Amino acid sequence: MKELILNGKNNTSRIIIGKGILQESDKYCKNLFADRIKPSQICVITDTNVEKHYLKALEEKLENIGIPVINHVLTAGEEHKNLEAVSRIYDTLSNNKIERNDMIIALGGGVTGDIVGFAAATYLRGIRYLIQIPTTLLAQVDSSVGGKCGVDLPQGKNLVGAIRQPDLVLIDSDVLKTLPKSTFIDGMAEVIKYGCIKDPKILDMISQIDLCDYDNKDNEIIELINRCVGIKVDVVEADETEEGIRRILNYGHTIGHGVEKLGNFKQFSHGEAVSIGMTVAAFIGENLGITKKGCYERLKRILNTFDLPTKLPYPAEEIYRAMMSDKKKQGESIHFVMIEDFGKVQIKLIPITELLQIMKVLGD
Ligand SMILES: NC(=O)c1ccc[n+]([C@@H]2O[C@H](COP(=O)([O-])OP(=O)(O)OC[C@H]3O[C@@H](n4cnc5c(N)ncnc54)[C@H](O)[C@@H]3O)[C@@H](O)[C@H]2O)c1
Ligand SMILES: [Zn+2]
Questions:
Q1: CATH 3.40.50.2300 fits 2-179, yes or no
Q2: For residue range 83-118, what is the model confidence (pLDDT) as tens digits?
């Protein structure tokens, strides 16, 4: 078992990583309020897929705490990460008289974590105890840690949100075993992102993970998750509100969001879009003389090993237009994240038109 602490401005997250952690969830949840106000109810929120695998087991464990447990099941899928889903959670919370000092648990992938975090941050101006139990690799290495939460609007992704550090994040490698392979691969894109921006050792370590055999690699996967989460903790502690260094976590995301948007969030998963975005960013970096020559080719090879896409799927102009409506745009230039080499990152304010010119070369 590994433990990390994230000290946020308003809250501290305790992060537990290991095999079989879900089976000990009652102990960790109870510890949270050992010397603080005891909640009167616990509400577990999950989605229609995760429900089948883990809701009953979690509820049975939580019953050991001796506090009533209720649940709410979201319809799975990014297309349901919207205000309507939040509003339905508010209904459940108010119909069941959930109070300010109660506990909300998000059990699921990044979509569930983002929706539930936002509901917990806003209902009654903030519920006292928020626990994230991420069940996808992406959520374990990225979205469950750092406090960013929110939902999409028809105008774009993650346009409404809050920052609410969870009190506890329980990361259990066992739950990854029921993930569809494609969802596991999706998370690998974020793992590779950490390798690019901070820790090249990660890129060596993943070469030991055979896609046909990843459910027998608990130790390796736990070590990978631990490294990724460690990076996220350091970055978030340095810049919780994303005014500077936290932007490095967006490596591959500017173009990635454009790709996701053009595919109506259906054609490409988040990880696939980020994979394309990271590759294009390396190409752009090499063209601007910022990224060391050869990084683009190596990154492409690594991503392709995991069956992740690396080619621009739409004309450069279309991606450019989709990026223009992204919230990270500032005037005509954007803070664009590039690597100098694996493990070394640089953020540069670049005119969007310059990015377009280089992307056009790649598209040819
Ligand atoms: N808040 C942040 O900092 C942050 C960071 C990165 C990504 N995100 C967000 O995360 C979301 C993507 O997260 P995701 O990839 O986890 O998607 P997801 O939550 O949609 O999960 C992917 C699919 O896997 C299913 N699933 C989840 N766990 C499972 C399990 N253990 N076994 C079987 N099926 C399981 C889900 O029901 C879903 O169908 C995006 O909305 C993205 O914006 C947020
Ligand atoms: Zn991401």
A1: no
A2: 999 999 999 999 999 999 999 999 999 999 999 999
Domain at 190-363, CATH class: mainly alpha
Phi, psi of 74 (to 5 degrees): -85, 155
Alpha carbon 281 to its chain's center: 20
pLDDT digits (tens, 9 = 90+) for 309-323: 999 999 999 998 888
Ligand 1 contact via 133 beta carbon (within 6 Å):
no
Task: Return the ligand number nearest the Cα of 251.
Answer: 2
43: helix, strand or coil: strand
**Three-state SS string across 267-334, please?**
CCCHHHHHHHHHHHHHHHHHHCCCCCCCHHHHHHHHHHHCCCCCCCCCCHHHHHHHHHCCCCEECCEE
Q: Ligand 1 centroid vs 10 CA: distance in angstroms?
A: 25
Q: Is 110 in the pocket of ligand 1 (CB under 6 A)?
A: yes
pLDDT tens digit string along 158-190? 899 999 999 999 999 999 999 999 999 999 999
Q: What whole-number distance in Å separates Cα of residue 35 and Cα of residue 232? A: 28
Element (H, E) at 182: helix 181-197
Query: Which residues belong to CATH 1.20.1090.10 in the chain?
Result: 190-363
Q: Tell me the Ramachandran region of residue 51: left when phi exceeds 0, alpha when psi lies from -120 to 50, beta otherwise.
A: alpha
